[in-house]
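re: ur question from earlier - yeah i can do the single chain one, its not a big deal. heres the input i used so u can compare w yours
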Amino acid sequence: MTRWTSVVVASLALATFTMSATATAQANARSGGGDLSTTAKVTLVGGDTSKPVSPKDPDGSGGEFPGDNLDPDNKGTGSTGDLTIDYASNLVFDENSYADGLITATATNNRAFVQVSDRRYTGDGWQLMLTPSVLTGQSDNQKIYGDGASVEMGATKFLASGATVSQYPHVTTASTTRLPLGEMAKVGQADAGTGLGTWIYRLNYDTTAPTKLLVNGSHVSETQTYTGVLTWTLTDSLH
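and the output i got, formated as tokens:
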């Protein structure tokens, strides 16, 4: 069994933002009374970003996350601010095949997800990046990386957490995309004007295209547990 833990490195836009809107209402007298114009003004202030967004149900309903029995101690990141990663699943992989020298292990968490919240109210967009680290053997500290060591993303998708008026972010990988261990890759993006609010990036939900760990069998010196880290990075840059 190979266990991946997750850490979060988030690039945050820390400046506070106040949105102002002015609405003008006009009342026109059509016969002899002249024109009368009135002005209505309202200042709209974005929500409180000093508190974290709690993990939501990955079914997109907007309800509270009921938990994952394969990741029971994961309560979310507790991150605060206006652009945050709120939750990232710890993935557990079980080996299920060995063919042509390649070991394939499949993630067992079928409720795995990463939750992103954009509370900037600017529509500037964002990118979600993933870096799978090298694997380290727990008995002999052997490192596994390089050719033939990768994470295959499988089927992934974005879901809105409850109702949304924003257009969806989009996935930037295919189900067969392999991310080499130790290298950063973009897995999702919200273009300008999209991705506002709270979003669920689902993975390992489709049994026909699961998330996999692929390792060249010649790199494995002995039977042992190997561990690594999935680093999820959220950036406010689209470049």
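Residues 5-31 have pLDDT under 50 and may be disordered. not sure if urs matches, ping me
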